[in-house]
Amino acid sequence: MLDRLRHWSARASANKPLILRGARQVGKTTLVKLLASSYKQDIYLNLDIEKEKVLFEIHREVHDLFQAICLQKGVNPQKGRTLLFIDEIQNSSNAVSMLRYFYEQLPWLDVIAAGSLLESVMDRKISFPVGRVEYLPVRPCTFQEFLLAAGEARSLELLQEVPVQEFAHGHLMEQFKRYTLTGGMPEVVALYHKEMELTALAPVYEGMLASYLDDVEKYARNDTLAEVMRHTVRHAFQAAGSRITYSGFGGSVYKNREVQEAFSTLEKAYLFQLVFPVTETRIPALPNTGRSPKLQLLDTGLVNYMAGLQTEVFNAASISDAYRGRIAEHITGQELLSLSDSVLFKLNYWTREKMTSSAEVDFVWPYRDYLIPIEVKSGTIGKLRSLHQFIDQAPHSYAVRVYSGHYGITRAKTLSGKEFSLMNLPFYLIHRLPDYLEHLIR
Known about the structure:
By secondary structure, the chain is α/β, with parallel strands linked by helices. The protein contains 19 helices and 13 strands. It has helices at 2-9, 28-36, 50-53, 55-58, 62-73, 93-105, 118-121, 143-149, 153-159, 169-182, 186-195, 202-219, 223-236, 256-268, 300-306, 310-315, 326-337, 385-393, 433-441, and strands spanning 18-21, 41-46, 82-87, 109-114, 134-137, 272-278, 294-297, 348-351, 360-367, 370-376, 398-403, 408-413, 419-426. The longest helix is centred in the middle third of the chain and has 18 residues, at 202-219. The radius of gyration is 23 Å and the shape is globular.
């Protein structure tokens, strides 16, 4: 993620202000502070602080505003290589409106903003400066970042090779299992590598859940929605990776409309993503929002802790064995999400058009002109029946199986006789999926 920020910073032309989107505690502020070290000077504003927020209420002309900011922060307002970071920008509609004027009138100033649930907490009359800002999602640490935090330089080096060398498989699977167990929340990752003790992480997980429940008050438009959202957060972890229905979710008496609104609001806060099915086997494949979605949560480590699965995951011989395969599917979804720089990107799975059909492929991934089916399975090729049905309908012959075994490409046939290439991808290579698809197709 830091590399993506550096890429934005290094552009030759004037940068549009960058808005970082993501849940609380995924490291947005830390990332920007790391980036700031490459600037001649940097300015940090936190609009939770009243005296910093009020600057945007007093000064409506951008040059005056910037002078006032520099004066308050004791910074020389000189041109050249300056980064302005506006944190918790959702607290000031004036600050959001001012972003376009930073871009238009102070093009030499790089501006980054971050905030929680911007679309819902802002006054609906305030419009974002469309075409004047960029967005970048910030998600939990990826497996690569987990290895970087652990100082696993040799492992990172081996992962750059395509295909990966077989001798590294055992070590990399062990590291990925640790990543699956702890998750990728930055504070958790840092503490785990320091203590190497799973029980030390409990207070951090508890604190995160408490903060998300506290935030419900800010996100909900009324007390009823706040109550439904709290219930949804508390019961979502047990439903991770499974198809859900809104009505009566978590054993409640809440109606379809109430729970759907709660999920929609929490999805905007980046705590959840609703993964809807597609029925097409080619691009474009539009999601069918009338069918039951699967539930993807912010972080697999949080799921393990909140759902009481840590011991099961720790003792499982394979990731695929834990929680009836749902943890394996969930961590795969988490890694796939990290591959996209778009805040609009959504995961999808595949089902047949017939409502009575049980055929289901865990994920589909758009690559070039293809829609690639991805199954998270430990079984034999012959048991991948849903994947076979997808391939029979698809205009191509490529598929991916994510599992705990070694990397390899198998020439196979569907049950109806169509030949296809199946890429068997170990969990630790999910983050390299585009490179390995290129390798497969080439």
